Amino acid sequence: MNNFFFGIYPYIALSIMIVGSIARYDRDPFTWKSSSSQLLRRKQLMVGSILFHVGVLFIFFGHFFGLLVPHQVYEAIGIHAEAKQLLAAIAGGIAGIVAIIGALMLAHRRLTEPRIRDTSSFWDITILLMLVAQLALGLISVPYSIATAEHGSVINFMNWAQGVFTFQSGNAAHIADEPLIYKLHIVLGLTIFLVFPFTRLVHILSGFAAPVRYLLTRTGYQIVRSRRQAPRHPAE
Hints:
0% strand
């Protein structure tokens, strides 16, 4: 099971995320949106959305650079494994608290406002609850991560994450002996990647996909004429 979840499942999840997102953007571009409901409980939406997005963006880039930048780079600037794990746990914990407060506000709004709940799809509710659970798992792991910082477990997770993207065989062995709470956090995170193309999360990629499609396909272009150059109406 360890080999499946941490050696095979990452490739299943990432493949479905990439292929599924491309297919959805190509076949159903009009579903590529976040389906705003800002006219209802606007203040709760704005506060919750800001807290959630700020916290999640900090966590995402923290995970991205923390796991995928080689440890030698951190060593070269004087950040050793113990200090890096403490920094990740404390900074990530603060960002996690901000994000989960925002996520709970958004979940409360979506589940308790009848008009929003009735127009929410299965995935609208499911992905929001999955994100709340993922943030909760991350926060639960923070005290343990701080208490065991001297063991340098962060190195094992860095080796595992970098091994996934460099296609190393036997990569799952790096985290075979790590605590269950970390493993649950990873598996749920991979599952979020797996269901990504079927949810409103695809709008995250809009900032990247739209310019590419505009440059590579003719359908992205619009013909614009100045008022002076516009053709006259036959009646004129």
